[in-house]
Amino acid sequence: MKKLLFIPAVFAALILVNGCSRSSPTRTAAPVPVLVARAGETNLPVLIEPPPVGHVTPISSVTIRPQIGGVISNVHFQEGQDVKAGDLLFTIDARPMQAALDQAKANLQRDAAQLENSKIQFDREQKLFDQKLVSQDEYDTSRAGMDALIGTMAADRAAVTNCLLNLEFTQIRSPIEGRTGALQFHEGNVVKAPDDVLLTINQIHPIYAVFAVPERYLPEIQRQKLNHTLAVSASFDDLAGDPPQGELTFVDNSVDPMTGTIQLRATFPNSPAVLWPGQFVKLALQLNELTNAVVVPSQAVQEGQNGQYAFVVTPDKKVQTRMVKTGVSYRGLMQIISGVSAGEMVVTDGQLRLVPGVTVNDKTQGAPDSPVNSAAK
């Protein structure tokens, strides 16, 4: 009797549950909000961006020292001024050198007169010697006196030349074109040759930037350097305008065994003077350029256990997971070798809540296509 009562009760409960389940509406997941960008095609430079920064060095740096000592009577330039080769920089008091020159010229004239008289005496002695009227000793003494005065005349001429040179050294001129640094001595200071440093001039038009890259890039650099000039760009914090552009002009002849890097040097026109000697800059060496490369914003590429992937939004607002193969990166763009085609929409923000097949509420990042197009330009 108890079993018969239990069966109708269970049957009634099943009917009640079935009725409740039919009356409840079906729940659907809300679309996931994400930011998207369209994959595009552009020409993409292939760059070597070495992790260490490079430093800027002048083409030429000259330390100006006096070649004679004395008092600086005039300074003919302003600190930090651009000068050309041959421009007058300093004047040292020339009066002592002028007096020494006058003395040397006077000595030359005196010895010239003595030599003339010695020649006359020697000619007389020679005639008397030929007539056997003077001894060999007297003849040799007269000849030696004349020869000594000839040597004295040569020394006098050298002394005059030296004094002229010292007088010329009182005007210190720039040996190169460049920019002057800070003055170490001013008008009225006494300078000592050649110890005192008066000034340093750096040539900054053009200018060098020295940097190093891992040795694995050396074969490709050498190969491409044979065919065309390799471009190098420089950047630094608070740079106003486009990065200065230069070209690779030197590859060192050995690899540093301690760091495994090869030193390179680029030459920049540096007009106007954006780069400065001693400055640290970030340098990028361009090897070549990829034509019509498929690119997406770098943040669209994710790292997974099986490699890199991206979320692609289909026209029906569904998400697909695509494994991608990437290439070079440039200014926030990532080259997609395979996995995503140009024109497809990729998710750039909101990937944490996505799974394959989920519906998304997509919003284009900025203006349509702006992340790809603006960065590519």
- The overall pLDDT, averaged over residues, is 86
Q: In angstroms, what separates the terminal alpha carbons?
A: 88 Å
Count of helices?
Answer: 5
Molecular shape: rod-shaped
Task: Count the E strands.
Answer: 21
User: Which structural class do the helices and strands define?
Assistant: alpha+beta
Helical residue percent band: 25-40%
Evaluate the radius of gyration: 44 Å
Strand content: 35-45%
Q: Helix-strand pattern, N to C?
A: HEEEEEEHHEEEEHEEEEEEEEEEEH
Uncertain segments of ≥5 residues (pLDDT<50)? Answer: 1-27, 367-377
Largest sheet: 6 strands, mixed
Describe this structure as you would to a colleague.
The termini are far apart. The chain is rod-shaped, with a radius of gyration of 44 Å. Helix 2 (95-130) runs antiparallel to helix 3 (136-169). It contains five helices and 21 strands. It is an alpha+beta fold and 377 residues long. Mean pLDDT is 86; it is low at 1-27 and 367-377. Strands 1, 15, 16, 17, 20 and 21 form a six-stranded mixed β-sheet that branches. It has a six-stranded antiparallel barrel with strand order 3-10-13-12-11-14. The protein has helices spanning 2-23, 95-130, 136-169, 218-227, 370-376; strands spanning 32-38, 40-48, 54-64, 70-75, 82-83, 88-92, 171-173, 178-180, 190-191, 199-214, 231-235, 245-256, 261-268, 280-297, 302-304, 307-313, 319-323, 325-330, 333-338, 345-349, 360-364. The longest helix has 36 residues, at 95-130. Strand 18 and strand 19 form a beta hairpin.
Topology diagram in text:
Layout: H1 2-23, E1 32-38, E2 40-48, E3 54-64, E4 70-75, E5 82-83, E6 88-92, H2 95-130, H3 136-169, E7 171-173, E8 178-180, E9 190-191, E10 199-214, H4 218-227, E11 231-235, E12 245-256, E13 261-268, E14 280-297, E15 302-304, E16 307-313, E17 319-323, E18 325-330, E19 333-338, E20 345-349, E21 360-364, H5 370-376
Parallel strand pairs: 1-21
Antiparallel strand pairs: 1-20, 2-14, 3-10, 3-14, 4-6, 4-9, 5-8, 6-7, 8-10, 10-13, 11-12, 11-14, 12-13, 14-19, 15-16, 16-17, 16-20, 18-19
Helix pairs in contact: 2-3
